[in-house]
Amino acid sequence: MSHRLPHPDTTFVGLDVHKSSITSAVLVPSADVAVVDRFYPDEASIRRFLSGLGDPGLGRSATRPARPAITWPDCFGGSAHRAR
Question: For 35, which DSSP code?
Answer without folding.
Answer: E
